[in-house]
Amino acid sequence: MTAQAEYDAIVLAGGAAKRLGGADKPGVSVGGRALLDRVLAACRGAGRTVVVGDRRATARPVSWARESPPGGGPLAALDAGVRQTGAGTVLVLSADLPFLGDATVRRLLDALGPEGPEAVLLTDADGRDQPLVAAYRTDPLRRALALIATEHGGIAGLPLRRLMQELKVDRVAAGPLDAFDCDTWEDIAAARARIREHGNVLDEWITAVKTELGVELDVDTGVLLDLARDAAHGVARPAAPLTTFLVGYAAAKAGGDSAQAVAEAARKAAALADRWAAEADEAGS
């Protein structure tokens, strides 16, 4: 199965968050976005996304489920979620992964095949399995959950390792921050600091703005930054934000819904800024 094939996603957003003093962990903001919304962005390609936990506002539509009994643990939550899925593959994620990205989701899904393993887990930098950052073949997952429930008279309170004992499992290594989760306020502070580092802050901000505005278009931010620089230097500093706004407006007015439409509008504006600057140079010579 490839990343382009149909899959459903289950996001576990329950738990008592004891190390956060009982705070609503899925709703804690990192980079202006709730932790749950950050995870939902990573699995936006799912056919159906089921969130197991208390209902809340989310950045995109999801289905809701609740483990029985409430607070019954991750295995019970996984069972509640998989009952609402229909795809042959399910991606299973916890709701406290601020840096999980599309590339990692693709790696997990690509590693899972109909004749290969029944589950593919992420392993962190210390080699520890992360069964809540994983892809599962749905039928074997359901069979394993049923077997565990039969053997133990239920699954509430049982550890996730019971599930791993019932499945054929492969593993993929995590990237530097793929498996970073937020269990404590110190983790939250570290995540918030990380996204504000020089090498990360721009991408994080643009992603947050696009999410807030409902924009899914990927554009070449380098082109827009170059345009803003040229407008600021060749015209006047306030010209930079106004010019980039007008580029977006022009692309939308032209009916463009692609990165090419934005790039073409940016090209025209950049050429104008160059002509404007050339005239200023001629006047000063």
Helix/strand layout:
Elements lengths: L7 E5 L16 E2 L2 E2 H8 L6 E4 L10 E3 L8 H9 L6 E6 L7 H9 L8 E5 L5 E9 H15 L8 H4 L4 E5 L11 H11 L5 H13 L7 H14 L4 H15 L5 H26 L1
Parallel strand pairs: 1-4, 1-6, 4-5, 7-9
Antiparallel strand pairs: 2-3, 6-8, 7-8
What do you see in this structure?
The chain is an alpha/beta fold and 285 residues long. It has ten helices and nine strands. It has a seven-stranded mixed β-sheet with strand order 5-4-1-6-8-7-9, sandwiched between helices. A hairpin with a 2-residue loop joins strand 2 and strand 3. The chain is elongated.
Jot down its keywords.
44% helix; 10 helices; elongated; alpha/beta; disordered N terminus; single chain; 285 residues; seven-stranded mixed β-sheet; 9 strands; two-stranded antiparallel ribbon
Q: List SSEs in N-to-C order.
A: EEEHEEHEHEEHHEHHHHH
In angstroms, what is the radius of gyration?
23 Å
Uncertain regions: pLDDT < 50 for 5+ in a row? Answer: 1-5
Cross-sheet strand order for the largest sheet: 5-4-1-6-8-7-9
Q: What would the average pLDDT be, to the nearest integer?
A: 86
- Structural class estimated from helices and strands: alpha/beta
Give the % helix: 40-55%
Number of strands: 9
Number of helices: 10
Strand content: 5-15%
The best one-word shape is elongated
- First-to-last CA distance: 64 Å
Largest sheet: 7 strands, mixed
